[in-house]
Give the backbone structure.
Amino acid sequence: MIKIAILGFGVVGSGTAEVLTENQKIIEERLGCEYSIKYILDLRDFPESPFADLVVRDFNVILNDPEVTVVAEMMGGSHPAYDFSKACLEAGKNVVTSNKEVVSNFGVELCEIARKNGVRYLFEASVGGGIPVIRPMLNDLASNKITKICGILNGTTNYILTKMRDEGASFADALGEAQRLGYAEANPSADVDGIDAARKIVILAALASGKLISPKSIHTEGISSISLLDTKVAEALGCSIKLIGQAHVSADGLCALVSPCMVPKHNPLSRIDDVFNGILIDANMVGEVMFYGPGAGKLPTASAVVADIIDVIAHMDSELKTINWEEAVPADLTDFDSFSCARVFIASEALSFADDVTVVKTAQLDEAFAYLTAPLTEAQANDISQTNKNSIISVFRAL
Ligand code: HSE
């Protein structure tokens, strides 16, 4: 009998207990062995919960119980989640997690500790909620070089942007609704400022390159300054505004960023709405593949956590190793000023551009002029913004 401990009985932790219990029979049939949840670590009491008897407050009860071989960490935040995960791995327990903050900041170290102790550290639920993406990248795309990842990686902001576009809702109202539905992080800044998406894109970039970039070191913009004028301009240019995480892997190095982007209607990411996430991956043998599904929420995220628990149990007696990442150093990164993509300039008056700038589409609204250009580097786009600083209202990257 495999004994499992759950760390954190919030939205995803309680969902994980629910999935493990509700689908116990079919999971055990597939695994050919039985399991039970032995402990749930939380500081709160849950007298109404069917799992109330399993709740413990002292982490050492779990750490010191040799019967517990699988620990699912869903506490959120770096501490004590990182410390508890590290202690469990050092004690020879497998750890699975939905905690992208811990994976993106401490993934190199935790994977190394897992390897040294002959156990596994898995984190399918850390990116894309319920969408299978990490295991497919590691397994099904293993014969490819991955050159580009581009995706909607945060369900909360996608929900907010969809409500603003389709219902003309204010940013604050849409955020409040996302929080009520349990999509948003406890601190909404992680979602709306792009921090959560930055953590996720560096995890995906590391799967592609083997190098983990610190999420704090990548260019990150959020959605809190997007106005209803911006959404009207997007519509006039045949685009939707989406918060996009992108990573580019080339012989020159790695580049990753998060920013709102104008996504043309012909790009499938433009049609991914509400809390759904979508991730496009360019790989040198298969071409472009897309992963799509619910990017946040209790049971979808728990579904991915339990997938890792099943993977751990199924391979408990094998030599299967956890992944091998290195910390990215400055030499692994490309110069961000030379990052190039299409741009949209929104201005209060007509703009004129230098000869080396190609305008591919324009739109004129009552209150603004908008220009979609062919790819420009960051340095070129910044020059245009600076030259026209008295009339520019906003500037977007575009896909
Ligand atoms: N707050 C996150 C999101 C939860 O909205 O995508 C899932 O990681």
